[in-house]
Design brief:
Elements (H helix, E strand, L loop, with lengths): L7 E5 L7 H9 L6 H8 L14 E5 L4
Antiparallel strand pairs: 1-2
Helix pairs in contact: 1-2
Length: about 60
């Protein structure tokens, strides 16, 4: 069946914030596999992918391989 059972973790953004694409790259080491979209889908506090608010707790998937 091969279901993805990745765990969700809290992630604190930097004080200045970053675009979601940068956040996905910094966390997962690449921007493939829809990591950025997963971050956006889980966190409705992000109004625009070009600016993730600083000093904010987001829900993201743990490091996956």
């Amino acid at each position: 069946l091969g279901a993805n059972l990745s765990k969700i973790q809290d992630y604190e953004t930097t004080p200045t914030g970053n675009p979601s694409l940068v956040l996905a790259y910094n966390k997962y080491g690449d921007v493939g596999n829809d990591w950025e979209q997963d971050i956006l889908d889980r966190n409705n506090i992000i109004d625009h992918p070009g600016f993730v608010p600083g000093n904010t707790t987001l829900e993201i998937l743990e490091n996956v391989s």
